[in-house]
Amino acid sequence: MVQTPSPQRRQKLAELISDDIKRWIATEGMVEGDRLPNERALMELYGCAKGTVREALKILEVEGLITLKTGPGGGAILHTPSMEPASRMLRNFLHFRSLDGYQVYQLRRLLEVEMAVSVVGLLTEKDFATLEANMSDCECAQSDAEDHRRQRFLELEFHNCLARACPNPLLAFMCRFLNDMLRDLVVVKKAYVPERKQFDKANHRYHRELVDAYRAEDVERVRTLMDEHMRDAEGHMSALEAEMAKQMLIVPETLAQGSEHSPLLQMFQQQQQQ
User: In the prediction, which pLDDT does 192 show?
Assistant: First the structure.
C-alpha cells in the first residue's frame, strides 16, 4: 500500500516575517550589535498587528539571532548565536531515534581526525595553556562517581578546545555536536560508573602525546594519534554499553528498590497501579 505523503505545514505569518528578517540581515551584511527596525516600523512594513511582529521577534530571539531589550534604548539587537541552541535542537531530534555510541563514533572516527589535522600550526600559547590545564584537571580526578562524570566531561572538553581552533566552521560544529552527543550518553548511561582506570589512562596518554605532536607541528603524528585515540575510545564505549545492557536485565524487585531515586519512575508506577 502506497502511503500518501502528509501535506507540508503552512507557515504562520510570524514565521514568514522572521525568515524575511533573516534574509534581510544577511543581504545587508549586518553584524553583532546592529539594531533591527522598531516594532512600529516592522508593523508598517509587513502590514500586520503588533502581536504578529512580537511573535516573529520572539522566534529570532529563541534561535539566538537577536536579544530583546526593554525600556529606553531597547529593541531588537543583533546577536551572534552560539552553537548551543542548534546543538540542543538537533540532539532533541535524535533523542527519539535510539542513538548509540557506535553510531556516534561512525562519524567521530572520521571527523575528529580531520579536525585535529586542520588545527596543526594554528594553536596559540593560550590554547596550549588551556589544554595543559585540562589534562591537569583530569589527572586530579578522585574515586567518587561525581568526579568520574566530571572527568568524562573534561576529556570531551579537550576535544572542544581543539575544535574551537578549527578554521572550518562546519567541521568544528560537527565535532563539537558529536561531543555533546557523547556528553548526553555519559549522563544517560552513567558512563563514569563503574570506575574505568584503563580508559582514563588511555585518554591521558593520547592527550599528552597529541599536545606534544601539536607543539612539534607533526601533521602525520597528529593524524595517527587521533585515529588511534578514536578507535580506542570507541572500544571502551562499546564495552560500556555491553555492561549497561547486562545491568538492564534486572528483576522488578530491584527496580522497585531504586525507584526512590527517580520521581519520574515513581509517578509512572503510580499511574500503572491506578
Answer: 47
